Amino acid sequence: MAVRVGQEGEELRQFVVPVAYLDHPLFAELLDMAAQEYGFNQKGPIAIPCGVDHFRHVSDVIHSDQGAAAGHRLRHFAACFWSSMRENKIYFWGD
């Protein structure tokens, strides 16, 4: 999803962010700022009224959070998978 970022007096820069960011509370705060500043009737990329450096920092935090959450989900899935295999006495050769 494309967004334009910049404060008043700052050149707007365009970024492309994953749609999954929409679920993150920090990105929701940025969208709330955009709605308060510009309303809901924007054409083209959503304009977010914050500094580019701040936006990059928030994006990095969201990216890190999603990576950590993905790792947690993978570990949870693997644990469930191995537990199920043992319960059903499914083993790999060499086990």
From TrEMBL:
Source taxon at top rank: Eukaryota
Family statement drawn from the similarity comment of this UniProt entry: Belongs to the ARG7 family.
Organism: Musa troglodytarum (fe'i banana)
Matches recorded under Pfam families: Auxin_inducible (PF02519)
GO biological process entries: response to auxin
Protein name, UniProt field: SAUR family protein
InterPro entries found in the cross-reference section: SAUR_fam
